[in-house]
Each structure stands twice: as structure tokens, then as C-alpha cells.
Design a protein that fits this description.
Helices cover 38% and strands 13% of the residues. With 148 residues, it is an alpha/beta fold. Strands 2-1-3-4-5 form a 5-stranded parallel beta sheet, sandwiched between helices. It starts with 13 loop residues before the first strand and ends with a helix.
């Protein structure tokens, strides 16, 4: 059995936060939100940076483009707690195991972390038709070019 296919109950419980040390990635609010979680949750869950062993992807960015970790988590059918910014919503709009939060609101992040603990594993995963966006973009550019 592939590690990614292992049922979540057999994996260690982690919140996963893939990030570089840039201010807009919102480390400060995430750490503060984690500190507000109930003690029993804090002792059971850890914050780690290893994608294959995580239970829940935490994505609190204030600014993003595509958000590759979102796609990776969706391919692994992991639950996601993510900021409610437009690029994140666009990438995850059809995903069935996600909770959104206001990335500027520490209490909202903390509530979303708690809510994400109740999310079932995704039944859908990453939909390949979402990956066709660039082809549509280039087809539209070609059509505009021909029309000129």
C-alpha cells in the first residue's frame, strides 16, 4: 500500500504548514492561533513540515498565486484549513474536505483548525479538469491573436 493511501487513522496527527519565512505567509497569526487551541488538541497534534505524513494542511497565506501545497494535499486527499483569499478558493472550490478562514483573524484561524479536525478525508481528491486552465488561457490568446 502506498503511504498516501494509508487511512488517516493510521497516520500520526499533524497540522502541516508548508512555508518559507516570508511575512505574507502569515506565520505569526498561525502560531498565535495554535496557542489558543484547547490543551488536549495541542498535546495530540504537532505542526510539521512533511507533506506525506500530515493529516491536515494548514494554508494561512495572505497572498498567493497557485498554491502548490493545496494541489499536493488534494492529490493526497488530505483535509485542508486555508485562508479565504481568491486564489485559494479558485483552486479548491470543488474540493470536499476544506474549511476556510480569514487570515487576519487569529480566532477564525483557531476555529478553522478545530473544525478541520472533524473533516472527513476527501472522496474527490484533485480533479484533473482543473489542470486544463492554462490550455484554455493559451487557446484564448491564440483566438485573440487570430481575430486581430
Amino acid at each position: 500500500m502506498n503511504f498516501a493511501d494509508r487511512p488517516i487513522k493510521y497516520q500520526t496527527k499533524y497540522f502541516f504548514f508548508p512555508s518559507t519565512a516570508l511575512v505574507y505567509k502569515n506565520h505569526q497569526n498561525l502560531v498565535e492561533a495554535c496557542s489558543k487551541l484547547p490543551q488536549n488538541i495541542k498535546s495530540e497534534y504537532q505542526l510539521i513540515l512533511t507533506i506525506l505524513s500530515h493529516s491536515i494542511l494548514v494554508f494561512p497565506s495572505k497572498i498567493e498565486s497557485l498554491g502548490l501545497p493545496l494541489l499536493e494535499a488534494m492529490m493526497l486527499k488530505r483535509s485542508i484549513a486555508a485562508s479565504n483569499i481568491s486564489p485559494v478558493i479558485e483552486v479548491t472550490e470543488d474540493y470536499d474536505s476544506i474549511t476556510y478562514f480569514d487570515s487576519d483573524n487569529v480566532e477564525a484561524i483557531s476555529r478553522a483548525l478545530l473544525s478541520s479536525l472533524e473533516l472527513p478525508s476527501s472522496k474527490v481528491g484533485f480533479k484533473e479538469d482543473k489542470a486544463t486552465g492554462w490550455q484554455v488561457f493559451f487557446d484564448n490568446l491564440e483566438a485573440i491573436k487570430k481575430a486581430e
